[in-house]
Specification:
With 299 residues, the protein is mostly helical. It has one domain: ABC transporter involved in vitamin B12 uptake, BtuC, CATH 1.10.3470. It contains 12 helices and 4 strands; from the N terminus they run ααααβαααααβααββα. The strands form 2 sheets. The protein has a two-stranded antiparallel sheet with strand order 1-2. A two-stranded antiparallel sheet has the order 3-4. Helix 2 runs antiparallel to helix 3 and helix 2 packs across helix 9. 45% of the residues are buried.
């Protein structure tokens, strides 16, 4: 792998790491299978891109993107808790609706940011080399986001959210509004996913209605890979593991796409296949390791 390929993988790992933190909130904290993220990532991208093209500050456009993502997540939560629609179906319905909404926001299937200043353009004059600007900025934003998520999950509301995912009957008997916790948690999750989409759009210079395809698979793969490699014994460790898992996942994808055996070589169209293999490997690795230790007589 070349240096530029490695830097590109680190850049994508950090940018999509914020999305992975959002997936971590729903799947691990709330135990809520949420497919809304496939629609909220391009939602954040489209809102940020349209805001920038209308003269709004790139930094402020990130907040607008998060607000839009939060609303999308709340819709999923309300469909599930108030209208009693199965969580998986509720998220699919929201994701499907968001495809049309994103096109409506952009006025078409995509929108370009060529000629418009982005967050990277504003921060580039800080003396960073051009190819290092995005990885450093995205890494700082991802780490700050992880710190905020860790802090939130240790607050009274965050602990109630964790309890809602672990034992809703018990926490309900303590007077906690579990429906409110689910709506808030799914909203916060999709706000992070939308923030990630906004950063990706500003980095790529465009937003597209189809850029969210496969987001949930990549997010789950990153969470599982991170937990397998770095552990998840505490909230702080699990959040950092999710971020590192995103980076490892992107590096693994870059390595796989660079492999070649004779006339055979992976192409970008094989991305979902590579992701599936990585997830299977991450899920089975602990069992294989445990069996090996038992056969070897190790503790």
């Amino acid at each position: 792998m070349s240096l530029y390929a490695l830097i590109g993988a680190l850049e994508q790992g950090a940018a999509f790491g914020i999305m992975v933190l959002g997936v971590f909130l729903t799947f691990r904290v709330l135990d809520f299978p949420d497919l809304t993220v496939d629609g909220s990532l391009p939602l954040g991208a489209s809102v940020s891109a349209v805001a920038i093209t209308h003269g709004i500050s790139p930094a402020l456009s990130l907040l607008l993107a998060m607000a839009a993502g939060f609303i999308a997540g709340m819709v999923t939560g309300i469909l599930n808790t108030k209208l009693k629609i199965l969580h998986l179906l509720a998220s699919i319905l929201t994701m499907t609706a968001l495809y049309s909404i994103n096109i409506r926001i952009m006025g078409g299937p995509n929108i370009s940011l060529l000629g418009s200043n982005t967050l990277l353009d504003l921060l580039a004059p800080w003396g960073l080399a051009g190819y290092l600007t995005a990885p450093i900025i995205f890494s700082v934003i991802a780490l700050c986001t992880a710190v905020v998520v860790i802090w939130f999950l240790h607050t009274e509301m965050g602990l109630a959210m964790q309890a809602t995912g672990n034992n809703p009957q018990m926490i309900l008997s303590q007077g906690v509004n579990t429906h409110g916790m689910i709506i808030l948690g799914v909203g916060l999750s999709n706000a992070l996913v939308a923030l990630s989409g906004a950063l990706v759009a500003q980095n790529q210079g465009a937003a597209d209605a189809n850029m969210g395809v496969g987001t949930i698979v990549a997010g789950l793969a990153s969470v599982i890979v991170g937990e397998t490699l770095f552990g998840s014994r505490s909230i702080a460790r699990a959040c950092i593991a999710a971020l590192l898992g995103s980076v490892v996942y992107r590096i693994a994808i870059a390595l796989a796409l660079g492999l070649q055996w004779g006339r055979f070589a992976f192409t970008p169209s094989d991305l979902n296949l590579i992701t599936a293999v990585l997830v299977v490997a991450a899920l089975t690795a602990p069992r294989i390791k445990s069996r090996f230790r038992i056969r070897a007589g190790l503790p």
